[in-house]
Amino acid sequence: MNKNWPLWEIFIRSKAGLNHKHVGSLHAADADMAVQNARDVYTRRNEGVSIWVVETKHITASDPDDSDQMYEPAKDKAYRHPTFYDLPDELKHM
Amino acid sequence: MTDQNKFDYILQQADNCLILGQRLAEWCGHGPILEQDIALTNISLDLIGQARLFYQYAAEIQGEEKTEDDLAYLRDAWGFKNVLLVEQPNGDFGFTIMRQFLYDTFSCYFYEALMSSSDERLASIAAKSHKETLYHMKWSADWVIRLGDGTVESHNRVQQALNELWSYKDEIVIETSADSDALAAGYGVSLAELKEKRDAKITAVLEEATLSIPEGTYSHKGGKEGVHSEHLGYILADLQFLQRAYPGNEW
């Protein structure tokens, strides 16, 4: 029966102010169950304060075969990095 | 012993938590899918955690240098005050879900009321446990609805579970002398008020689950006074073996 349950990708916000981060995937019959399952599987050791679930089939990924044309051209363009600014200490998580 | 009645009152709830926690722990590694295996054992650990808070307090009241471990591991079946509902065997997943639902609908409103206890220690245990129990009730109610309003087979199985457990659901809201004394003394909960809220919740969920509500009014009794079904002895044999065979042994 569980073979028929769709796969869901799980995103957890570890604390207020941080991004939701992909932590893994699990099976569930619908979105409500996916949130509950994610709560039990991924936040039982106090890992999170918010959960997003997305059914895996709704995610479109880039093709690894296109890596050369997609990512190589950015490698030698150091001037696109804002590395010439001094960041104040108060600014966290940059 | 400074307060026998309060001691008995606390043990009623402590033993419900421990025995149901032990029953749910039997699911470890046997859940229908990995995610629900973890859900079942998470709830088990919540319940054992609640049991510990109550046993620690009860041991302090008992004095005589007793600890929570003495209460959990070294009492015999007739000393346990849990209701018969929580010692019933797991059965299939639908049966475990229904047993859990019939317990959660009690414990949720019990802790809600116990938060107003005149005993600060009980009120604080209740506040912590209530949050956990709200989630347990959401989980078990959702599953009752999923299974009841699911396939023909899931509906039939959970209906069968409801029929079998119906006569076990009310013992927990029938007053013992410990309950009525606790209410009179101000630290206990009104089971009459609790029953009204609980019954309304049970009815609403069962109707949404398209289950037929059994008509029987008979209730099994005895657990709260230490008179148990044959099942409790086997549970305690599993639970207490290590401490009985190797007294004082630690990890």
Automatic annotation (TrEMBL), chain A:
InterPro entries given in the database record: PaaB (IPR009359), PaaB_sf (IPR038693)
Protein name per its UniProtKB record: Ring-1,2-phenylacetyl-CoA epoxidase subunit PaaB
UniProtKB/TrEMBL annotation, chain B:
InterPro entries from the UniProt entry: Aromatic_CoA_ox/epox, Ferritin-like, Ferritin-like_SF, PaaA_PaaC, PaaC
Pfam families: PaaA_PaaC (PF05138)
Gene Ontology cellular component list: cytosol
Transmembrane segments: none
Biological process according to GO: phenylacetate catabolic process
Protein name: Ring-1,2-phenylacetyl-CoA epoxidase subunit PaaC
Domain of life where this protein originates: Bacteria
